[in-house]
Prior knowledge:
The protein is of the alpha/beta class. The protein has helices at residues 2-24, 54-68, 88-101, 113-125, 139-142, 157-170, 186-199, 203-206, 221-229, 241-253, 269-272, 301-313, 322-341, 347-354, and strands spanning 36-43, 76-83, 106-108, 130-133, 150-152, 178-183, 207-213, 234-238, 259-262, 284-287, 358-359, 371-372, 383-390, 393-402.
Amino acid sequence: MGRVLWFGAAVVLLALVLAGSAVTAPPATPGVTATRILIGSTGPLTGETASSSGFLRGASAYFRYVNAHGGVFGRQIQFAYLDDASSTQRAAANAQRLIADDGVFALFSVVGTNSNLAVRPVANGARVPQVFSASGATTLGSDYARYPWTIGYLPTYAGEGAVYGRHILARRTAKTKVAVLYQSDPYGWDLLRGLRTGLGASAGKLIARALGYDPTSANVKAQIDRLEASGATTLCIFASGKFAIQAFVYADKLDWHPQIYVNDVAAASSIMRLNPADTADGAISILWAKDPTTPSFTNDAGIRLAGRIVKAFLPGGSTSDSFVVAGMAEAYSLVDALRTAGRSLTRAGLMTAVTHMDETTNPFLAPGIVVQTTPTARFPITQVRLQRWHHGHWVPFGPLLAAAP
């Protein structure tokens, strides 16, 4: 009888121990199971800036390619992205839905500066990684103490503007005057600030006029008229696609032909092919991800891989869309980070991985461009090359340049 009582007590004790273990066991990581990793994003699938949704479509195709080759430690990457039509309110609401309702592991490649700024407090408040944003806003890397769960990806707009400023300064003549058209929001302000940094002490003398425009306005004709009247020999177009196109066209109609610098976001080949065909000839921009329409990349291994991925995993997608290739570059880096984070995947582990990057083999980045970060240097890409628009395509020139903010 005593043995029966002892055995019964032992069973009860074991049950209590097991129950206690279940209660104290660490919770499962949201968005991660034995077979999948759920990643979310938001971007303009519709509206005037819908062309930049190529970032998301390119990333999605690359994830499908990775899944077809075994995924990440046997887990399939599921990528769910929602349309925000470049509305900051919708972007924030999408992020909240993806985190609270869908339970994503992380947010990745959120498209656009203002959308990223709207999503950032949502992600950080929930301690959800917001990684490799499709924006060059300097704050996404510099304000890590306040927003430790956020990191950008693109060369910063401040760094990009500084590259243009230094190039202008090195080629200045007695007649050099600079006019600037900029989007009047954090996106354009960042580029303008960088330009002034690159021009240094000469900024005040060289910049003849800088005019902003409201991104909700119909056109920038009035701004181009006033900038042409300034007598400037150089025009910096710091704008989004629609307004960049207008700036080129209006300047051409005025028979004004300054040396033009156009920011990266507005420099996709699909935007630059204007009518008349020579409207944008001679314009200068930066290069960081390979453009599949650039002749020197025709036989490039990374561009050939991108083309195969588009054909197999992006039905109806264009093999000449530079936004798609840029999205693949971001996705390649995220897969690298997920592998570095290990089999026991956690959100904190992903943030450790993305802040300790040393990636030198990304096939979708221009030759020499690397992805490097530290916990206090959260600017993944800090090198660029210059390129010049010539007869319907970009032609890279010059050495690698520092594009640190």
